[in-house]
Amino acid sequence: xxxxxxxxxxxxxxxxxxxxxxxxxxxxxxxxxxxxxxxxxxxxxxxxxxxxxxxxxxxxxxxxxxxxxxxxxxxxxxxxxxxxxxxxxxxxxxxxxxxxxxxxxxxxxxxxxxxxxxxxxxxxxxxxxxxxxxxxxxxxxxxxxxxxxxxxxxxxxxxxxxxxxxxxxxxxxxxxxxxxxxxxxxxxxxxxxxxxxxxxxxxxxxxxxxxxxxxxxxxxxxxxxxxxxxxxxxxxxxxxxxxxxxxxxxxxxxxxxxxxxxxxxxxxxxxxxxxxxxxxxxxxxxxxxxxxxxxxxxxxxxxxxxxxxxxxxxxxxxxxxxxxxxxxxxxxxxxxxxxxxxxxxxxxxxxxxxxxxxxxxxxxxxxxxxxxxxxxxxxxxxxxxxxxxxxxxxxxxxxxxxxxxxxxxxxxxxxxxxxxxxxxxxxxxxxxx
Amino acid sequence: xxxxxxxxxxxxxxxxxxxxxxxxxxxxxxxxxxxxxxxxxxxxxxxxxxxxxxxxxxxxxxxxxxxxxxxxxxxxxxxxxxxxxxxxxxxxxxxxxxxxxxxxxxxxxxxxxxxxxxxxxxxxxxxxxxxxxxxxxxxxxxxxxxxxxxxxxxxxxxxxxxxxxxxx
Lengths: 433, 168
Prior knowledge:
Number of helices of chain A: 15
Largest sheet of chain A: 2 strands, antiparallel
Mean pLDDT of chain A: 82
Number of strands of chain A: 4
CATH architecture of the largest domain in chain B: Up-down Bundle
Mean pLDDT of chain B: 83
Number of domains of chain B: 2
Shape of chain A: globular
Strand content of chain A: under 5%
Oligomer: heterodimer
Distance between the termini of chain B: 65 Å
Order of helices and strands of chain A: HHHEEHHHEEHHHHHHHHH
Radius of gyration of chain A: 24 Å
CATH class of the largest domain in chain B: Mainly Alpha
Strand content of chain B: under 5%
Largest interface: A-B, 23 and 19 residues
Helix content of chain B: over 70%
Low-confidence stretches of chain A: none
Low-confidence stretches of chain B: none
CATH superfamily of the largest domain in chain B: NADH-ubiquinone/plastoquinone oxidoreductase chain 6, subunit NuoJ
Structural class of chain A: mainly alpha
CATH topology of the largest domain in chain B: Four Helix Bundle (Hemerythrin (Met), subunit A)
Radius of gyration of chain B: 21 Å
Structural class of chain B: mainly alpha
Shape of chain B: globular
Number of strands of chain B: 0
Distance between the termini of chain A: 37 Å
């Protein structure tokens, strides 16, 4: 193993970890903002660093300090060891699962291709299922070790729900795996890069719509989010399994919940929305045209962001703050969101002499970066829809939950597996699929 | 000693240590958690042997499903440390138990020692992969596989039948 491959591997691992950890605060902010706008409020707006409030993002930072500063209360009758272990298990499993999700196609350095996936496992999706099935432990250990009847009830509900919906999710996955003919997520995403009938992308959503509905419903149930948040039905059992948690231990459960949302969204994107594939543009095209694409992006940024920055600066002077001077907050945004990136892009363009011509390795890196951006954008959309659904739909009743899981979803999924298997058998080797 | 040797020693030590804990700790929940650690260490050893599918199946089936059930039972029965009876004080019983354990161990150990350890080469390409296992189970040994499925189905139906309410 040479130095380059070690560096690439380290970078892949770092990226797959940071995607989860860096999206977490963003998601918490998104939850607050989206919920407020759905409820006709403005949401967090007061916390600030200097004059900068950053549309409430600063609130997430203050949350962290608040949670660190709180007293860590452990009930006297609790089992202290397991009480501390449970949130660690939850967060650990949630961040670990991202390792098998491919976030870009490949980069080529010194003639060697590196696929952008932290762990290219032969067992592929089984790894994900394995760690998803362990998620139950964090919850039942928390529930049991708290020695509180509300915790226990919440934990039992949660475990029953997760185990029930794991089945439906597994069946939905089987249909997808049959259709794409592979168990490896990298292969599945690559198979989604072609066009169906030369018109629509060969995405999972178009060929496996029923599996998609079942999968996304089970994903909601697996993350214990509304409309399946019975484990935390606050009117009935307080906060469920994390009733007796405070301070950083509570924060870890909180983070695990959002990490689960990110992983579930990323998985939905990978299986049903082409993963990192940019619609209608495959990797070869991207690599070939990397130079003009990058040049266009740089030119657009140089022009657009600079103009935007100037506009914001003008607004800062047009609407002065209380002291009569220019609005310092708007000025800050003008520099950070407008002038700085715009002028940087212009400077880079100037250094390159107004045009970009990249070598092959650099082209693959640019293509991978574009695909990574596409992947993150799609993932964020699904993270948003998780929040959207939570603030729109009411909660299921427990018997409805079980009925939906066992009687309807599993049945539909099995029928769909049969249909998919038949279709895969009939279309094998035909129509260029 | 190579890195693989060190990794193996760590995993083997974990497996042996945690399985000892399973039978020695008082608290049933701790015993179950130790058993999970054992399964993880074994899964790690399977991965080192290129048996990735087996490792994944080990985690999904044993750690993810069976032990969840065991944990549920222990937590619902609310078993605490000391609830489980200490081993029998009966001298004959103890003697028989030790004899059974030692002879079983001797039998297994003698079989393991009789394996020629130099006979194995590097694992062949694709051994232990999902594709290879699928081909073995579903193409080469379809009938035994289906027979095993029927057996499991019968066992499931039997379990439901035994657990039915008498008045129903």
